[in-house]
Fold this protein.
Amino acid sequence: RKEVEQDPGPFNVPEGATVAFNCTYSNSASQSFFWYRQDCRKEPKLLMSVYSSGNEDGRFTAQLNRASQYISLLIRDSKLSDSATYLCVVTPSSNTGKLIFGQGTTLQVKP
Amino acid sequence: DAMVIQNPRYQVTQFGKPVTLSCSQTLNHNVMYWYQQKSSQAPKLLFHYYDKDFNNEADTPDNFQSRRPNTSFCFLDIRSPGLGDAAMYLCATSRVLVGSYEQYFGPGTRLTVT
């Protein structure tokens, strides 16, 4: 079983749609959680951290459910520029800064 | 200004011919990482340096080596590249603080093996 699992998609949605991505992780001792964005043939960039209380940044909302070991990302009012791969990322219990990446979910927003 | 710089951006090497990829950072971060990313796959951590301490992932082939001569620079050496080593190689840095694990990635080096 992969340590971090995501539905690879692709998710094809029209502009203005709301889309949600899910991610599960296997290590219950995982400490920190993130969503990174990766554009085609570019490097990953941090989109947002994910907190137990849930957090929102503009059109983006992230949720964490530790009991179910589940992370989600909601994008409202999708823009063409949101087209990218969204990587779910988890840190293991050890304090080394190591990140475990999911395979990524590809989003294609169409006009 | 670029904070994590990788050179070259594109590298073509022959099967079995050693190649070195370089990474430098202006962030003064204490941790540097090397990832391998193949098409449609997650970045795979090869190894990382926590200050001068080298941490190798258990499944990283011996063909891959790394050097960190100082805080700013880190190198990835592939001793005998095979066709399966063609990939994007990403360098990243972080300052490991409690509750903060953001990694800053360089633009990557795309390696082609002929």
Q: What stands out?
A: The radius of gyration of chain B is 13 Å.
